[in-house]
Design brief:
Blueprint (H helix, E strand, L loop, with lengths): L2 H34 L9 H13 L5 E2 H8 L6 H14 L4 E4 L18 E4 L1 H6 L7 E4 L6 E5 L6 H5 L1 E4 L4 E4 L4 H12 L15 E3 L12 E4 L2 E5 L2 E4 L8 H13 L5 E6 L7 E5 L5 H11 L3 E4 L4 E4 L2 E4 L2 H42 L13 H11 L13 H8 L3 H6 L2 H23 L1 H16 L8 E2 L7 H4 L4 E6 L4 E3 L6 E6 L4 E6 L3 E6 L4 E2 L4 E6 L8 E7 L6 E6 L9 E3 L8 E8 L6 E6 L9 E5 L5 E2 L6 E4 L3 E8 L8 E6 L4 E3 L5 E6 L5 E5 L3 E5 L12 E6 L6 E7 L4 E7 L9 E3 L8 E6 L5 E6 L6 E6 H4 L2 E2 L6 E5 L5 E5 L9 E3 L1
Parallel strand pairs: 8-17, 26-31, 41-46
Antiparallel strand pairs: 1-3, 2-3, 4-5, 6-7, 8-9, 9-14, 10-11, 11-13, 12-13, 15-16, 18-19, 18-20, 19-23, 21-22, 21-24, 22-27, 25-26, 25-28, 26-32, 29-30, 29-33, 34-35, 34-36, 37-38, 37-39, 38-42, 40-41, 40-43, 41-47, 44-45, 44-48, 45-49
Helix pairs in contact: 2-3, 3-4, 7-10, 7-15, 10-14, 10-15
Amino acid sequence: MAKKEKEEYQHSETGVSGQYKTWFLDYASYVILERAVPAIEDGLKPVQRRILHAMKEMDDGRFNKVANIIGQSMQYHPHGDASIGDALVNMGQKELLIETQGNWGDVRTGDDAAAPRYIEARLSKFALEVAFNAKTTNWQLSYDGRKNEPITLPMKFPLLLAQGAEGIAVGLATKILPHNFCELIDASIKYLRGKKFELLPDFLTGGSMDASNYNEGRRGGKVRVRSVIEEIDKKTLVIRSVPYGVTTTQLMESIVKANDQGKIKIRKVADHTAADVEIIIELAAGISPDITIDALYAFTDCEVSISPNACVIVNNKPMFLGVPELLRIATDNTKELLRRELEIKLAELQEKWHYTSLEKIFFEEKIYKELEKKHETWEKVLVAIDKGFDPFKKQLKREITREDIIKLTEKPVRRIYRLDIDELNAQIKNLEAEIRAVKHDLANLVDFAVAYFETLLKKYGKGRERRTEIRQFDTIQAKSVAIANIKLYANFADGFIGTGLKKDELIAEVSDLDDIVAFTKAGIMKVVKVSDKVFIGKDIIHAAVFQKGDERTTYNMIYVDGKTGVSYAKRFNVTGVTRDKEYDLTKGSEKSRVHYFTTNPNGEAEVVKIVLSPNCSAKKKELEFYFEELEIKGRGSIGNQVTKYPIKSVKFKEAGKSTLDAKKLWFDNKFGRLNTDEKGEYLGKFEAEDRLLVIFIDGNYEIVDQELTQRFETDKILLIEKYDAEKVITAVYLDNEKQQFNIKRFKIETSTLNSKFLFIKEGKDNRLEAVTTDPNPVLKVQTGRGQSINKAKFKVDKMVEVMGWKAVGAKLVDFSKSVEMEWDKPVEDGGQGALFE
C-alpha cells in the first residue's frame, strides 16, 4: 500500500470509530431531550406539546375526530401516528387538558380506546386558560422547516405534578406521580405567601396510600398503594378500587395465581366492574375474611409499591429534583408568565392611549384641516400635521412617529364630521383606569398571582377533590396470613420430615412460608423450611410449625446426661434460631437421651410420675415431679437435677396451670389491630378463655376472640374492651325517625362469637352517640348555642333501669345539631338522676 493511501485509510478508520462514539451519545441525548423526559417549563414531553399546539390550531370550540388531530400533529412530530395516538389517549384519560367524547378506554380495567376515527376530543377550558398565549410563547421551526412550533408552552400551572409523567430513556428514567389539583393550587398559594407546604400523590383510581417513605418524590422513596377491600359478610369480600398502575384484569390474575399457589383460599372471583370497580371474592368454607384481606395485600396486586424518580429537563439537561422544588419552579414560572402578560398588556394599553389621545387632539384642535390646505407635497402635509401637534407633545407619553400621522390621515372624511369627542374622552379615561390597575398588579405581583390561583381553584376545582386516602399501613407478616394447605408428614423413627413423605404419619397442615421446629430423642433441636424431605435426626419426638418470637410456648423436658447418668429437668422457650443449625438441648454428651417432652402453648406446668430402675440403690423407687417449681429459662440451660439414679420411665400424672402471667393485650387505634407489643390502648390481661367486646357506631355489638390477625375499622368503633358478661352497658343513640336521643342500659345475653347483634332501634340513619360500661355512669349534655346554652348532668343508673338488650330505651333529649354529650365521673349528690347547671 502506498504511503498516501495508507494515511487516507488510517484517517477514515479514525473517523468511523469517532462516529461510533458520538452516534450513541447523540442518540441518548435525543431520546432524553426529545422523547422520554418532560421539560420543567411546561411539564410536557415533545409529543404532548405538539399535540396540544395542533389542537389549539384546530380549536373552534367543537370536538374534532382524533384521527384528524393525529394528522395535524404529524406536521410537528416525526414519529408516526401510533405514538401520537397513544400520547393523546393518555392525556385524555387524565381528564385535565383534553375533553373527550366516545370510548377512550379505562385505566382501571385496561380496556383500550376505540379507533381514532370513532372518538373525538377538544381542548378543555382549563387548558385554553393556562397553556396558551402566543405573545409569551417562544417559537422554533418544526422538523421540516415549514411551520413554527412552541419550544415550550407558557404553562401557568404546575401541570407536571398534576398529570405525573413516566418515561424510559437511555441510561435514566423518570417517574413523577400525579398529585391532587386542589392541593397543588393550595401549595402554590402557600409558597407565594412564604408558608410551608406538603404534597403527596393522588391517583384517579382512588384506593388508599401509605406515603410515609415518599421522600418528596426523589429517588429512593416509595409509596404503598392498596385497593379498598370490604367485608360484605363472613363468606364474601368486595374490592372497590385498584391500585395505581394495576388493572382489574391484572388484579384478578394475581388473585387466581395466589389461590393456585396456596397463599389464599377462595371459591370464586368475579369482576362486576361497571361505573365503579367491583370485584367479588367468595371465600372457601371456614376461611377467615380478616386473614384473607391481609393475604390479598401480602400476596396479590391488591397492594403495590411504587418508587418515584422525579427527573426533568432543566436548561437542556436532565436533573433529579424533589416535588417541593418542582412546585416552587412551576409557581415561579407562573408568576413570571403573569408578569410578562401584564407588561405586554400595559404596553398595549399605553399604545392605545397614545393613539386615542392623538386622535382626540387631531379632531378637537382641528389639525385635520391641514389635509384641506394646498401643500406642495404629501411630505409637507405630514410635516404640517406634526407641527400642529407641537403644543400638545408634552401631554403625550412618547414621540409622535410618521406612522402615527399616516394612520390619522387614513380616517375617512365621513368619520371626521361624526366623531364624538366625548366618546374619545371616555375611552381615554377608561384606558387610564386600566393602566393604573395593571401597574398596581405589577407592583403587587404576589397578590395578583395568588388571586389568579384562587380563581383557578374556584372555576375548575369542583369535582377534583382528593380520591386517594392517606393513611399508614401496618406491616403484614406473610407467614401469619398464608393459608396452611400443604400436608406435612414425618418418619419419626428414621428422622425425616417433609411434604413428600405421604406414606408416613401426617403431623400438620402448613404453608410453604412456614418454618418447622423438630426435636429428637437425643436432645437435638432443629428449625427447617418446609420442603419435600429433610433429615432432622433419628427418633423424632416432636415437630410443629415454628413461631418466631413466641415467648408463651414452653417446652417441658427431662433428660439424662450420657456422661454422668444424672437426669435433669428444664423448661425453656425458643424465640429465635438459625435455620438448619443443630442445637443440643442436653449437656452435650453423646449418649444423652430425653425421658420426657411436652409442648405447652401457655406455659402450663404439669405433674409427672418418675419410676426409677428397680435395680438402683435408691430407697424410693417412685417420685412425683412438679414442673411448676422450675423457672422458664433459655434453651441452652442445663436444668435442675431430678435424680442421680437411672430412670425407667416418666409418665404424665396431672395437668397443671400456666405459670405465665395472663397475656397483656393492646389495641392499636392507628391500624385497628390487637397486639402484645404495647402499641395503642391497653386492654388488660387475658387468659386463654377470655373474650373481647366490640361496640360499633351503627349500634351493633360483637364478641370476638384474641386472634391478633383480626382487622377492625377504627372509625366505626366506639368501644373495645375485655368482655365481662356481668357488666351493664349504657348506651345513648339517635332515633332519627322521632328526632330524639334515647338511652338504655342492658346486659349482653348472647354468647355467639364473631356475630354482630343490633341493640338500638332499627331505622335509617339511626346511630350510636355514646356508650360506656362504667357501673355508675354520669352523662354531661349541652344543648343550644351562644347565650341560650343549657348544661345538664344525668346520673344514669339512678334514672334508667337495666332492660333487655333488644329494648328501645327511654327518651333522653330532643335531637338538634347543637347537642353535645360526654361521660363524666359520678357525682355525689344523694341519688338525684339529673343535675342541671
